[in-house]
Amino acid sequence: MTDFFKGIPQIIYEGPQTDNEFAFRHYNPDELVMEKSMKDHLRFACAYWHSLAWPGGDPFGGQTFERPWFGDTMELARLKADTAFDMFQILDVPFFCFHDADVRPEGANYAENTRNLEAIVEYFGEKMEATGLQLLWGTANLFSHRRFMAGAATNPDPEVFAFSAATIKSCMDATHKLGGQNYVLWGGREGYETLLNTDMGRERAQAGAMLQMVVDYKHKIGFDGTILIEPKPQEPTKHQYDYDVATVYGFLKDFGLEGEVKVNIEQGHAILAGHSFEHELALARELGILGSIDMNRNDYQSGWDTDQFPNNVPEMALAFYEILRAGGFTTGGTNFDAKLRRQSLDPEDLILAHVGGMDACAAGLKAAAAMLEDGKLEAAREERYAGWDSEAGKALLSSDLASIEKQVREKDINPLPRSGRQERLENLVNRYL
Amino acid sequence: MTDFFKGIPQIIYEGPQTDNEFAFRHYNPDELVMEKSMKDHLRFACAYWHSLAWPGGDPFGGQTFERPWFGDTMELARLKADTAFDMFQILDVPFFCFHDADVRPEGANYAENTRNLEAIVEYFGEKMEATGLQLLWGTANLFSHRRFMAGAATNPDPEVFAFSAATIKSCMDATHKLGGQNYVLWGGREGYETLLNTDMGRERAQAGAMLQMVVDYKHKIGFDGTILIEPKPQEPTKHQYDYDVATVYGFLKDFGLEGEVKVNIEQGHAILAGHSFEHELALARELGILGSIDMNRNDYQSGWDTDQFPNNVPEMALAFYEILRAGGFTTGGTNFDAKLRRQSLDPEDLILAHVGGMDACAAGLKAAAAMLEDGKLEAAREERYAGWDSEAGKALLSSDLASIEKQVREKDINPLPRSGRQERLENLVNRYL
Amino acid sequence: MTDFFKGIPQIIYEGPQTDNEFAFRHYNPDELVMEKSMKDHLRFACAYWHSLAWPGGDPFGGQTFERPWFGDTMELARLKADTAFDMFQILDVPFFCFHDADVRPEGANYAENTRNLEAIVEYFGEKMEATGLQLLWGTANLFSHRRFMAGAATNPDPEVFAFSAATIKSCMDATHKLGGQNYVLWGGREGYETLLNTDMGRERAQAGAMLQMVVDYKHKIGFDGTILIEPKPQEPTKHQYDYDVATVYGFLKDFGLEGEVKVNIEQGHAILAGHSFEHELALARELGILGSIDMNRNDYQSGWDTDQFPNNVPEMALAFYEILRAGGFTTGGTNFDAKLRRQSLDPEDLILAHVGGMDACAAGLKAAAAMLEDGKLEAAREERYAGWDSEAGKALLSSDLASIEKQVREKDINPLPRSGRQERLENLVNRYL
Amino acid sequence: MTDFFKGIPQIIYEGPQTDNEFAFRHYNPDELVMEKSMKDHLRFACAYWHSLAWPGGDPFGGQTFERPWFGDTMELARLKADTAFDMFQILDVPFFCFHDADVRPEGANYAENTRNLEAIVEYFGEKMEATGLQLLWGTANLFSHRRFMAGAATNPDPEVFAFSAATIKSCMDATHKLGGQNYVLWGGREGYETLLNTDMGRERAQAGAMLQMVVDYKHKIGFDGTILIEPKPQEPTKHQYDYDVATVYGFLKDFGLEGEVKVNIEQGHAILAGHSFEHELALARELGILGSIDMNRNDYQSGWDTDQFPNNVPEMALAFYEILRAGGFTTGGTNFDAKLRRQSLDPEDLILAHVGGMDACAAGLKAAAAMLEDGKLEAAREERYAGWDSEAGKALLSSDLASIEKQVREKDINPLPRSGRQERLENLVNRYL
Description:
Chain A is built from 16 helices and 14 strands. With about 425 residues, the first copy, chain A, is an alpha/beta fold. Chain A folds into two domains: about 10-375, TIM Barrel, CATH 3.20.20.150; about 390-430, no CATH class. In chain A, the strands form four sheets. The first copy, chain A, has an eight-stranded parallel barrel, surrounded by five helices. The first copy, chain A, has a two-stranded parallel sheet with strand order 1-2. In chain A, helix 6 links the parallel strand 7 (about 135-140) and strand 8 (about 180-185). The longest helix of chain A has 28 residues, at about 345-375. The mean pLDDT of chain A is about 100. Chains A and B meet through helix 6, helix 7, helix 8, helix 10 and helix 13 of A and helix 6, helix 7, helix 8, helix 10 and helix 13 of B.
């Protein structure tokens, strides 16, 4: 153990009545929920970037955190990794996630970046071996360095495309080597600041070509994880091409990749796109592209990505309800893409923020399972659409306007509305919480 | 002429210096812009619903307008039509648009609705013949009547689907008969209020089936106009399936209809979806589905559809710039889906609001044409992407990650960012205004 | 009993485990919470307008509800009142609230309006006598009729000011006669649509004069209830003068009325103004003007007043925590300014929506009380500011820049930041839920 | 001259027809508008922070700009000042503005900060003497350093209050010494992240005490500039106490400082608070607290402070119309609180962004003056309120509810609404553009 978390105990489940801040009140890893352990349902992951690499800055202020591993050497990168694994173990999460730039010092060029990455991947490998920790996903940071300011795949400069492609290769290699279960693409700079200097047609084609190469490379190296796109509407870029789930789906269809690529949905990104988290989850489920989630909360009244730890259990319940309806995660999981408030300086804060988030998810999962097992919601929904299961209902969908019109005229079809019962169903949901 | 507009003169072009409120300052129908008359570029249409049918209510107050044609008889419907055509002629617009419910009294059932509609279509036909007015598009109102409260095509009750299909047929027939150039589908109730009572998968399938029937019926009757979907993210419904252009595109691809259906883009709807109008136009152009526009402005700071007459010329210029870059309208046009403020009670207000909106569009069009003809913006954009036209650039798009990575390593590709020059380009745009 | 709610039982408390939809799970009227009954803490009221008078329309659709009392006669107004009191009794709420326009038919002029109001007030008086129901507050609807389209007190036409003043008098008389505990002013049309036609200085002065007259009249007639202003930022009006609590406070200070008038805070209005509900409550408490609340929820992602029944208990807990910290209600209470979704057509929906809302409030109240009684949050807050209780801390506030600067220099004051512990406190709150 | 702007010419007025990017098309400093030169109307200032000190970072990416003066030594601070004054002269702006942290290296403590500041103030003094440049305002940066993370005046730690007070003193001294015309307070951290750890009552009292000390110190040292508060609703802080103009006004009234302090209104901050810029200007004018403006534009669809250079002339016209109606600036001016997009790397971009912004303001000013001189808008507004100038209208405001009610009854006052003519007035505004 490093010194950073000294004095902080291993977090274990003590149940709802505990007074102990450093204990789970809802997350009980081996407890069965719908015949699967909570651990296997939730598949929690910590995000390296927010917890280990973020200095606490915001647009109007600099670093607030003082971490012993901040700095740009391989030695500090290893100290950071040591602390990271301490944290993962204290929290008993089975997974973690990283960008290349989170884990290795920035090099002077591609070759040095890759050497640094490979060294730290080696180090991770040993630690994963020793601890049983697993990699939920890896990804390339193609947005922080100034070379990416005008995009990575969608850059007007083909050399940036090339640099990005090489970097993605190195990160896919690293993810593959570490047995990662998914590889994620978040296009934080894939979009535009102003249409005035943008050729949207070219940029779309570039993005499509890059995605095809990623899929091809996956198959070439035998990586059997899932390729995931993470939608976000804007920020940092004024408009990002992967706006939301529906937009990503259209893009995948356009390039014929809807069978190869899924989505990693973040609550905060959903909200910034004007959707509820459960909307994005339900839509991805219906489109067959639900992959994984980035769990956080976003202040509905702050117009940027606040990436807060989740704490509203009723919201979690609605989210996990959609995930359970999709059959749960396969390669995906629940990654805390959440950061401490920049005033939360203490090591305890970092642990307890995760504890609270994990408990909120666990409580939500249990409520969602109860909703499904009870079946009242499903029954109400099925009853509402029952007409479509009749012969007449089924026939309608393959009919034509003229025939239907004839029917309407002949039978004087003049339907009366029926109550949608929204409030009753909302009351029902509250019973499980 | 009816009495309603008594004393209001025919609006003609008098140029920017005129002091006459009742004159165009920018819209000069026969003036050539990029070798086409302004009339043929802009293809202005008045919207029957806002101008003739809207009583001035809002969620906290009732009717403010007192129009002699308000009421539910065929006689009043004809008086409404008479006044409408007076207005179209005073404004010298070439087109108008309508929903069935705007133009005919509501009947007790489908048959009566259709009889009423057919009678008024007959009446329209005579008036169009007499005046040369044309129909830009027709559409069915499948959202105001209580039977549609839970959706039309996407209703849980198949009878509502049937009633909707029949109504669409009658409206397509009407549009076809009147030589309409497009047929529009706006799904104001196609979406959900709460996921709790909604089966999104079924509803999507229902919407797809209905759209397929519409396309089939178009071909069956030989209607050679364009089928248009009008995206809107929400309002009245909490979530609408046709959220924005990208969402509609994904939907069309899913049902294989992207070659059959285009979009009718409204500025206000774009804004409510978090996009600029020009974004939606540019995206539709790149996807090959740009059809027509609903012109209005939306208060950026009111979170609902304010449907105001457009008045900000710089915004119009950016919009028409994207339309001109797409080659201009074919069957589409510029429909004022804009309504008077409910305090603007006088007949003069109705005329002058259109005059101001038409002038704003005309001024925007002229600025957009100047931008294109000058070519400085295009040149700057092309220069920015010039690297992609080189052999190396072109080769990149059909390469693969491993080969590119090798290149990056070998040539130590380490690109430096170049200025995006946004402010210079914004200054440039201001020169044409 | 009227027929409307036939078959719906009296709602009683059955506890969290009940399966009965028609029972309270948390609201137990006589249960003591912090030594006061829940009934006296919460002081629930039903809103006549949404539940009895609203037809279910929205900006894109008309009436969906079909109520036997809809219409414009005194007889129907009495049927409406009968049904209202049935509902109040089924729900066992102690209070109700109304606008004049909710309860009486619209007359042809002021005199007829007032006659109608007086007749129904008489009728209410008998029913209140018989049932023990009380009036939480009365108010005048100065926004629905077209005469108010440009404002009531702030209208450019002094005759509208006069009509409004007379109407307020009649509503204050009615409220006084019925023993109302507050009188509310909501300025839905007091604001502007466009600055171009608005004299903000005059309108402010008019609003101040009217408020002064209201306060004077209260004293004249010996009404000992509280005068309340209800802030809202916009909708229906583009900008409303009573934007939020802080704005109302500045206005009261300007006219020297901060000791005479308090605020009625609505969750939905707080959200539309960019604030959390608890912010507005805490601010009003600190400014000494917290009066009463309008309880609902607003969809954070719909930009208009959605007025939904509350259902998120964690949000309720934070709200009642601020109310309890203010010492609880005196003349104020918890009015459900919430309306059914327009698809919720059935009488059961109306009852159950209130049941769910009352339970959400009750659960929130209990959690808030537990938070306060436990004292951990208060202790953490006090510890955080403890430095200000030291002699040095106290002295600082009455010092001056030059003296303080001397101290900073001499003692080399160079403070280090301390953790704000936000996530720990959020976890703590979740313990009480 | 330093090398940075080498090759960039002095910007002079060449008129609307010029093809020269490096020339003013509208801003003609000595041209008279309403009998005052444009220079004296607009009183342009450059903001040191954005133009000289900002590295181009955003929440997802680091520095993009590479400026020769970046670094933390006094020598570099002087190079920065040299470049700054080069820029001011190239642009021919009469004023500049700065925070202490923009102009001096960060020291280890208050004493070193102040020594550094004094040295640079000395250097500024010489340069101002040599060039005629003036200081529009100075201010203290009490938000970037981690010590201010929980507030300056409103910090839970009295030592931070003390440090802040000392720093304000040093900045007021600097501003006074340089003949600054105003002193600004922006409370970027004066607010809260979560109510859970916040004592709003204490924090308000602390803020009031600090403001009183600032006013006292102003009088003590004989500074005859204006003290200005700059409202902003949020960002970086979740809620900031100086939310908007109305909120600041209530705060000033509470502490009796409404005669001593005015507001510095920023377009972007107005928008983030849900207001139009012109609303905030008009309100401040009516309340007698309009001081100065921070000119920029904010993307209406990005929920954070985008601080872009203004370019929409119609918006500028409405803003300067309100400023002219207030009698124009006295000590205030037009400060470009605007930053380059982070992709605009070149020295030319920095100059041209200002040129475009100055031209947009100048064009707006000229249009606003034309509107006022023509008088049609004023006439329409006066006509609308004319009833209030009658004897009866005047009497109404000092009457009482009972007397007015008697009048309404006796005269059967039943006012009819009149058109508000919004679209006509909007058309009218477009004539002057």
